[in-house]
Amino acid sequence: MSLRIVPEDNHASSFSHIPSKSLSAPSAPGLHDTLRAGVGPSPHDADKAISAHPLEARLKSWEATREALRMETLRRTYGIAEPVRRGMELKIARENTWRPMCLSQGGKTSVHEEILAGRDETITWEDVFTNDDTSAFVSVQDEIERKLVKI
Q1: Cα separation of 100 and 7, whole Å?
Q2: Which residues on adjacent β-strands are paired with residue 25?
Q3: How confident is the model at residue 74 (pLDDT cuts 50, 70, 90)?
Q4: What is the pLDDT at residue 82?
Q5: Kindly report the CA angle at 101 between 99 and 105, in degrees rounded to 5?
Q6: Rounded CA gap, 68 and 82, in Å?
Q7: CA–CA distance, 108 with 140 (Å, rounded to integer)
Q8: What is the DSSP string of 2-56?
Q9: Most exposed among 39, 61, 78, 79, judged by the fewest C-beta atoms under 10 Å?
């Protein structure tokens, strides 16, 4: 394992926003273009990012490279037990079913998982814009009461 800080360049030399048979707007790939496709729901899944821009792929590989460097540094410093222990803790945090609505973005991510992954001090787009403007605020006590009633 190398101690690579920057991910490898594996992007294409040219890029086009317009796929061959796309009905999306050329200036905004992935958005439903009413003039081309007509009125109605988009054939694309709204939860999945459609953008295939090289910068987005580069940022994802940057995070993977950073995590690999972190685990390799831990392995070289403390031995193989430390990265294995952290991987097991992260797996347990991901498999946990109870995620408080007020601590995470509507139960989508876990605060514990963010702390273990080292993303607890970063603010992303999803942290600010959660699309839950119409939902009522639920306190931790209400969630605990609901969980205890189910048991």
Answers
A1: 35
A2: 28
A3: very high
A4: 94
A5: 95
A6: 13
A7: 16
A8: ---SS------S---SS-TT--EETTEEEEE-HHHH-SS--SS-TTS-----HHH
A9: 39
Check the CA dihedral 49-53-56-60 and report its sign. positive
Distance in angstroms (rounded) separating the CA atoms of residues 69 and 4: 7
DSSP string, 49-84: -----HHHHHHHHHHHHHHHHHHHHHHHHH-THHHH
Per residue in 122-132, pLDDT tens? 887 777 776 66
Task: Let me know: does 93 contact 116? Beta carbons within 8 Å.
Answer: yes
Q: What pLDDT, in 10s, does the model give residues 93-118?
A: 888 776 666 665 555 667 788 888 88
| This model's pTM is above 0.70 | no
* Amino acid identity for residue 139 in this structure: S
pLDDT of residue 81: 95
CA distance 23 to 44: 10
